[in-house]
Amino acid sequence: MNIRMTRNALLMLAIAGSALLVGCTHYVKQADFDAAISDLRNTDQRLQQQIDGLKADMEQRFSKYDARLTQLEGRIRVDTVAHFDFNESTLKEQDKPMLDEFASVMREHHSAALVTVEGFTDPAGSRAYNKRLGKARADAVGNYLVENASMPADQVRAVSYGEDTDRQVQKGMTRADGVENRRVTLVVDFAGA
Hints:
- The chain is an alpha+beta fold.
- It is built from four helices and five strands.
- It is found in: Cell outer membrane.
- Its main location: membrane.
């Protein structure tokens, strides 16, 4: 009995010791943790500098267009890059030079950037119809950027917000009064590697 208890005790000690050793393999030293945090902060700071540089470059180049730039949470939004006639998704000639300039900035300085083209409508029409119309507008701009402005297709994506009230420039306005709602904006989601 004594030998059996000793074996069980030794077995239990061996299991407990193994568990302690396994637990120790997941231990992170304070110096390693601090180094990882420092690396993350440096990366964040570097990305923020790239985004700041992109915003400054775009502000300089787009000052002649009716475009407004906003920076939010690591992204840059270029508002009012294209406006559309009521119930239309055809890109206007007057909007093409600004899109060409945008694509040029992206190719020259931020070739790894991912651009989201956001399509919007005024609230006339059904919600489902406006969602489709917003997508057609976003596709028109996205296709132009890829086909005419030489942006890589895998870096341009199109989404529709349709008539979403929280995204309307002129709340509830339609037809001639709602022209600001019928638009496409560009969002630079990633400033580069």
